[in-house]
């Protein structure tokens, strides 16, 4: 894989939210507005990049037996750092909205997933690109979801009313069911697009199945 | 043609088209349009009561919902290149029931959005009639209730016989303190609420029609209404000043409409009699819990949707064993 | 792995060292952000107080006293001063009468104990119904952005909460008015309306009854 591919795979082909379906908890919970999606995405991206760098750098000296606890310590430290920094310097409203979900980045599968599947096997440079691409893909997906939900709910984007006459909010979209509905349509659209592309190229398209063979998080998938 | 005529081959059924399903397998002579139009007839008394109490606005809402449901269904059929299905009447029933779940003052765009939620989100995305796990009408109602809580809980005040256009607003009896509601009003329909919730008598007539034509299982409404009666009855005895009497609970809100017309939906309720009892009981318990302690005054729609989700499990648990069936001993593979 | 043996002391030392490094990093970040976080929290309380009080230059959070209302609810009073002179009070009370439980109401009071401004600082009411009573929400439109400016809008209006401005608590709670030009209640959110009205009354009544104590300040 070329260097550029390490970066771009997270944006579309292996998008963590829309293809790998990782990190559903923050995806569904905080995307009630575009701003929240952006805040969560950027916070996760910071943690992902930092943890990828450190884990890639120490991959030679970490005993294999305790690699998971080591990853957890590294990730948890960076999450706490991001949490404290946001508490201190991010706008109060954003921090309150993201609330408990910031500490929960620790258990976001994407971070641990990339640590185990990529950073622990590749060099620092590649791991930075991987973290950046995956983080950016996560952020883009969250912003897209948040923006769609916010727009369908109140006709506004980033808290700015785009359609002046829209006075009654459609609150279904900002509540939890709206998250599932919009994500469902996003996944369907993604599959439809890939299907069309495969048809054009004369290939058959099979939607990614959620089994061990099509997942590369742990070692089982490689075999 | 000529090829196959000369070389006789045994036509094997396409395994992909073979459907293995639970009973019933025996055809009762009923078909979808016939069933659907009997249901429409059963809905008529409640519709007429709604028009009597709420006037032209009620007709407007009912018509708008029905037309938008049918149009959206046909639009979707065009889009995905399926045959038109409006003649089977299911979209019409969805539309009427949706209208009965709204109040007379509902804005037109809410009716149309409701039609979209019911037909597309509630039914067609799952593959159309028969494949939907949830009752489409309730999907729409709950979607609108969460989406526009203010519009969906502002009720018009009923005035018998007046074909009025402008309306006063009134609280639904469940939102009032106990003692502010009178039983005779509740029974006749002189209360605020959705179009289909007003007249208990009209709904009971409709329910009897459905039961007489054996279109619904009596177990569902019985278990549903019975469990609500018992639970709210106990709560009323324990704390009469905060909880309505069980009679008020039975005859107000969407309970009768839900118990007879929506919990009994063939597609989304269990097939076995035992299953129907469990289903109705579950609906009743959840409804009572939401009414007594929940953050919404009414819980019928949430209860039925929740039990819809459990229907496949209930079916699996209560399926009849074949005659002579011996349960495998423990440890053996089933 | 070359050997299958598990060298527990070595693994323990490795993890311990890593944890120590992590702890060092965290303690460094924690100490360097502590100041900013404290300021943020203070700013949050102050932001709420600034909404209900006239301009002040003390820290009302440090100039507070608690008086129980007739219902037995503890009302927290904050005293706002400018140049040492008292310019107003703010009372905060938690009422359990909300539709979904507790509603925290803060009311700014004039020197005579009459209500100045009411805000709801915390609630769990039904979105769209109860929150119509409690929320003051500013909505910027695309037109505002294009025109530019329009930044400091201040306190967003809320018909129901504005009703209480200028009222002085009397012998009984205020009635809930749902129709007419000035209303403090809303069909479909009667219980929330009552809860907020009751909380404002508790603050106002306690202030009127204890105005002598309040005017002496917390000291």
From TrEMBL, chain A:
Enzyme Commission number(s) of this protein: 7.-.-.-
Cellular compartments per GO CC: endomembrane system; plasma membrane
Domain of life: Bacteria
Localization (cell): Cell membrane; Endomembrane system
Key words of the record: Cell membrane, Electron transport, Membrane, Translocase, Transmembrane, Transmembrane helix, Transport
GO BP annotations, alphabetical order: electron transport chain
One matching Pfam family: Rnf-Nqr
TM spans (from-to): 39-58, 70-89, 95-115, 127-148, 168-190
Top enzyme class: translocase
Membrane topology: Multi-pass membrane protein
Function: Part of a membrane-bound complex that couples electron transfer with translocation of ions across the membrane.
Quaternary structure annotation from Swiss-Prot or TrEMBL: The complex is composed of six subunits: RnfA, RnfB, RnfC, RnfD, RnfE and RnfG.
Listed name of the protein: Ion-translocating oxidoreductase complex subunit E
Organism in which the protein naturally occurs: Pontiella sulfatireligans
Gene of this entry: rnfE
Automatic annotation (TrEMBL), chain B:
Keyword set, alphabetical order: Cell membrane, Electron transport, Flavoprotein, FMN, Membrane, Phosphoprotein, Translocase, Transmembrane, Transmembrane helix, Transport
GO cellular component, one term: plasma membrane
GO biological process: electron transport chain; transmembrane transport
Compartments where found: Cell membrane
Listed transmembrane segments: 35-59, 107-126, 138-155, 187-213, 220-238, 244-263, 275-294
Cofactor (UniProt): FMN
Recorded family membership: Belongs to the NqrB/RnfD family.
Protein name: Ion-translocating oxidoreductase complex subunit D
Source taxonomy: Bacteria, Pseudomonadati, Kiritimatiellota, Kiritimatiellia, Kiritimatiellales
UniProtKB/TrEMBL annotation, chain C:
Gene Ontology process terms (BP): electron transport chain
GO cellular component terms, A-Z: plasma membrane
Gene Ontology MF terms in the entry: electron transfer activity; FMN binding
Keyword annotations from UniProtKB, A to Z: Electron transport, Flavoprotein, FMN, Phosphoprotein, Transport
Start and end residues of each FMN-binding domain: 98-207
InterPro entries from the UniProt entry: FMN-bd (IPR007329), Ion_transpt_RnfG/RsxG (IPR010209)
UniProt superkingdom: Bacteria
Entries under Pfam families matching the protein: FMN_bind
Name of the protein in question: Electron transport complex subunit RsxG
Organism from which the protein derives: Pontiella sulfatireligans
Gene: rsxG
